[in-house]
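Appendix B. Chain record.
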Amino acid sequence: MVEAGWLTFFPYLYSAFLARTSDINFPRPALPRLIKSIWSMSITSSLKVDSDSPRSALIFREITIELPAQDDHLLKDVSHPVLELKLNGRTVDKTDLSRESGLGVWDANELLILPEIITHFTLSVFADLGSSEGQLLASQEIYGPNLRDRLGEPVAILLDGYENYPSMILKAKVTTEDIFRWALGTEQWNNQTGEGRVQNMAPNSDDQIGRHRNLESLLQLLSQINRNSGGRSSFYGSDNFGNREYIDRKIEIEEEAIRFTPDSHPSKPTQLSNLGNSLLTRFKRLGNLDDVDSAIARHQAAVNLTPDGHPNKPAQLNNLGNSLLLRFECLGNLDDVDSAIARHQAAVNLTPDGHPNKPAQLNNLGNSLLTRFKRLGNLDDVDSAIARHQTAVNLTPDGHPDKPRRLSNLGNSLRNRFERLGNLDDVDSAIARHQVSVNLTPDGHPDKPPQLSNLGSSLLTRFKRLGNLDDVDSAIARHQAAVNLTPDGHPDKPSRLSNLGNSLLLRFERLGNLDDVDSAIARHQAAINLTPDGHPNKPPQLSKLGISLLTRFERLGNLDDVDSAIVRHQAAINLTPDGHPDKPRQLSNLGSSLLTRFERLGNLDDVDSAIVRHQAAINLTPDGHPDKPRQLSNLGSSLLTRFERLGNLDDVDSAIVRHQAAINLTPDGHPDKPRQLSNLGSSLLTRFERLGNLDDVDSAIVRHQAAINLTPDGHPDKPRQLSNLGSSLLTRFERLGNLDDVDSAIVRHQAAVNLTPDGHPDKPRWLGNLGNSLFTRFKRLGNLDDVDSAIARHQTAVNLTPDGHPDKPRWLSNLGNSLLTRFKPLGNLDDVDSAIVRHQAAVNLTPDGHPDKPRRLSNLGNSLLLQFEHLGNIDDAEASIVQFSAASSSPVGSPSVRLAAARKWIYVASITHHSSLLIACESAIAIIPLVAWLGLSILNRHQHLAQIGAIVRDAAAIAILLGQCDKAVEWLEQGRSIVWSQILQLRTPVDEVRAVEPDLADRLLHVSSLLDQGAKSTKSQNDGNQSPEEEARQYRALAREHEEIIEKIRSLPRFGDFLRPSKLHKLVNAAKEGPVVVINVSKAQCDALALVYGADEVIHIPLPDLTSEKITQLQAEFNLILKSSGVRLRAVRDEEVEVGGDEGCKRILAELWDHLVKPILDSLAFSHGPDTLPRIWWCVTGQLAFLPIHAAGIYDTGDSSGHIHDYAISSYTPTISALLEQADAPAREPFRHLSAIEPSSGASYIPNTEKELECIQRRLHNRDYVVLRKAAATRERVMNAMKECNWLHLACHGTQNARDPTKSALLLHGGKLILEEIIRLKLPHAEFAFLSACQTMTGDEELSDEAVHIAGAMSLAGYRSVVATMWSIEDALAPKVADAFYAHLLRDGERPDNRRAAEALHFSVKKLREEEKDIKMLSWLPFVHLGI
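Structure tokens predicted for this chain:
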């Protein structure tokens, strides 16, 4: 509420701004003379005017107050009685009273009065006690509609002209049948008759006559206004409010007066200011920006013409500041609000303390500061505004008519600070100030409606924070009262209707009563209808209507509502000029509407447009602005929604960043803080569901719990916070299986349901979530009460959700799942029939392209499959295949959901011998890389891959069964060792690409290098200050960029297969040095697929006597032998640790020989004991990876022809492609050997490592080598030496990390060299590594197809040939193996060849067995070779 410093208006009846809640500053005007006769009152006042009063003031010369004789003593005993005149609640002037007549008759000196419409006035007599406030002796007030009845005498106004200038003369008698007469020229006034004659003085009589005619028409208009308003010639007449002709004519007359007034005349500034005020009045009614610009120009001219030190200067500055502030509110140009503050501050500075205008100036300065705070969010501004408003209140005496207005302004400032900082004391104080303001404002006062509206707004603000329904009900009551008290046609009527609409909408969001949202929409529509086109309030009214329509859509699902909301928000944006402070909010509202429509219809254009709008809103919102956190949160929600549709991890990462930023910018205690925390929690939970990182779900739970803790009981957001926490707990239960989580989830969901009133739009959602939790617990515990309760909740959710609502398909799908699950234990076919009906309905209601479509298709497929399994109707099986195939082939949706659907498709097609079987397998293989995406951490990829190996092996078995052995090899290559293959991809040379597109090749190398190093380079760019979250996010962004670059390369001619999985014709090249045998282990069958160089096709070797169950049994027995033998650490074998288990080993090795190795060797025509043993590479799958195939044979007879050693030299490879990469390695560098021996790692001492080093040094002789022993073998020094040396021998302890295989490590001095770090080393010149350590090729049982062991890491780092151990080795034997190994490799004195490493290991182990007659099998079995 601006306290406008209106100067005296040009002298004719006027009241346009007096009905506003504004303080008005009236400096003494330099105006022509006004002669006015006034009436007698009950205090019996008689004012007689002197026609000779000076022209520089409006003064009554003779004033007589008549009191009843019995009251004469009131003044007689007072030394200085004072008469005070108040017009419209404002003290106009004071004058001394003296007795010059008889008893009860007192006379006064000159008394200033102002030409304006009088809505009420007060005559008071004070005893002057020498203080600022005298003692009131008597007072008479005439107010409101009674004023007309108390006018005893007619009022006449005469305006004399200026000397030597043409002038206007107003002659009028004001009664209830007023007729205004205007003329041109001068007039001689007759005090007796109130009449006069007009004399034209203008040089051009014709011009004056024309002007006279125009004025006559205005007189007729004013006369009509006067009659309709009951004798009150007011611009605010009840039936003529805002009459366009009236205000236009008034401005024309004022402009005419200014034109005839020279700049040097003392009245010119006042006339300019009056015109400026009139222009502002018209602007507020009609919204034409030209008026506010012209008003500013007039006020600026008034300031310029007013000399420094003039008493009117502060008022002129104040008026200019008000005009600038109004333009800022329309256009948003910060220069305007800064200038307004400067003018208001200057007005305050120029107004001396104690001056009656000081509070008004402070009040206006406070308003300007508050307005700037709303735009920029600088807390200094709102604090300063509060200080100014508080000072203005303090300086305003109790009983002053402006006290309520200033209290209300103080309340507004406090409320705004609460909205930023969330301190409840502020909103409570705001409400208290507004309530006092309302209480102090009499009924019928024009300020009453705005005071009520402000109180309503503060109550509504507190409701948003605390959720107390009394507050929202009270807010609605106040806003309704404000509307009722505001006459039709009043310019504030639309805003008060809008405020009422806002309150009704909030109550609807709490209670769900449709009458409230319908009423809100009606109020907002009425506000729009009452707001003329072009008015600056039109855009916010449109936006509020859009919000209400969107809210109703979310309840009822009527598309007309969301479409209409979008239209309204777009219109609001179009009508809002660039730079306007409301523009960001309008953009954000449009974004929210577009997002909601996307969630219903799934049109990607909508979600993309929503993101664009939210981003634009953020860009236009300055840092520090209180709206910034909300804009960030809205953008985060849109990004999260798009992620759920498209699965682009950039979106969910960006969403988390935005939500975290919103939290960081939201101060503790702010009412938005809980919602921001909850939004962040939801985003983290969504990412967990995609990536499986437990940190995300744990963090989500923490955020949701914090949101609950910060949300007071009774708050409308409390149920949502509880439900979100319940969903997070349920998700963690599904991952970890802790029953406390599912129990807690049920408690939270039940609480959300209990706190949500019937009819609330969120009730179905909370019921659905509760049903999901009960359903999940049933699957774990089998309590039928849970599944029955789940079905009841889901059915209620469906019943409460109107047709067309976007959530309807979800509730139907949930209900279908619960019915299907109950069918399994009870076998009631009605349940499965009902499940199919619900799932079919869910599918039908879900648009194509929706991210949940694959899941709903899969659910329908499951129902049809179950029915087929019980009834045997082949139509059901075929129908389920249709659903599973559609789900797995969907371009959107979770890759895990799609892969599960593909797996079900494979199953149904297998048991029904469906023609789509091979296609189903191909679909599954294609989805696997999406599940184990490159952008995930290696740990997360491994977690996803733990359950995938069986799918690949089963698909390969099907391909073999269908005679597609080449496809089986390609699928096994594509679907196994995923992480290994991804890393090798990153290191693929791009020379051919560089020849065509050098920039693209360089970019690929750069991004691949960053990915290969685990995004370490990106971290260094940020001075090492990145959080793990930021580092992971950058890594994912690099992965997406890597994909985009590859797609660009593939679009080039001849590069269509760039980095695609290798086809068989290329893979066969890996067998140049010997056959590569891939052994597939499936539950259906076991097969060997041999690649032989030069062969036209894959050699299929059936293994009918080998089964998956048999291999699992052998692996379990072998693990038991290893465990009982204590062979998990390299150490001295003492007498207490028996390295036994020979009989068990022999039996297992014989099984492997008979049923696996011997059939393969026979099929490949390998013969016993050739002069030169051939090479053979084993590429095993499943649990075979943990069995010593390289040593298969019969060891309990004297026949040496019964084991593999006499047939071939065995090596292992994780993939066929790995052999290709190793064979294509660059030319060798000069030989340099590194030995890292017995680091002081803190583990047990290994005494024979020294002897092992002596053997190596002796064999190396004078070759170049580096030795790092004990404390010298630090992690850093070993890693640096590995980069300089191309041969490596490590004799130390090693560990296999069961929880996270990527943390398996070699124990060095002062730290571990973990598997992840080894992979990142990227040693292009590395050739050979001998890992004389424990468990360097043990691997992880859950990742049997992923080669997750240190030997594999060495191979990925660049070592083309690696000797490793499957379990720990006996310390005493290690030097003997090493000595024999290096003796074989270095015997010819030439440069060692790593391609002979397998041969050297073969013969060194053979020698060990021959020389150590009593050697235990577990002592020589662990040594293996990996690579070429």
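Further analysis of this model is presented in Appendix C.
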